[in-house]
């Protein structure tokens, strides 16, 4: 996949996520779109991210973090992507492509990718513990 294709997909996911978040902030839907949760009833590592972002937008940082610790990654990434989109549009430079390329380069490092996988496994264990206790 080229950087341009990856950026396009990331942008689509970003806008879908923003639209979903805005719908949930305004109407607070309880629709489950997670295939793992729908099929098994078990939370995935991303389960609760919408609620966590809603908490964050309401200034409830601790509630956001305990709802899903991934908010500590998703929120800064969302801010960076938003700024890259606005800055790229304003300056007419491919800032989102540069951001995507930098993120891809960083995650291609084995130790960074391993740390990310360990983080996600830890989040999943945490969510399973919260789910079953």
What attributes does this structure have?
133 residues, mainly alpha, single chain
Task: Characterize the structure shown.
The chain is globular and about 50 Å long. The mean pLDDT is 87. The termini are far apart. The chain has 7 helices and no strands. It is an all-alpha fold and 133 residues long. It has helices at 3-27, 35-40, 49-57, 61-67, 71-91, 95-107, 110-132. The longest helix has 25 residues, at 3-27.
> What is the alpha-carbon Rg in Å?
16 Å
Please tell me what the overall shape is. globular
Order of helices and strands: HHHHHHH
Helix-residue proportion: over 70%
Strand content: under 5%
Contiguous helical run count: 7
The biggest beta sheet is recorded as: none
**Average of the residue pLDDT scores:** 87
Give the number of DSSP strands: 0
- Poorly predicted runs: none
Distance between the termini: 42 Å
Helix/strand-derived class? mainly alpha
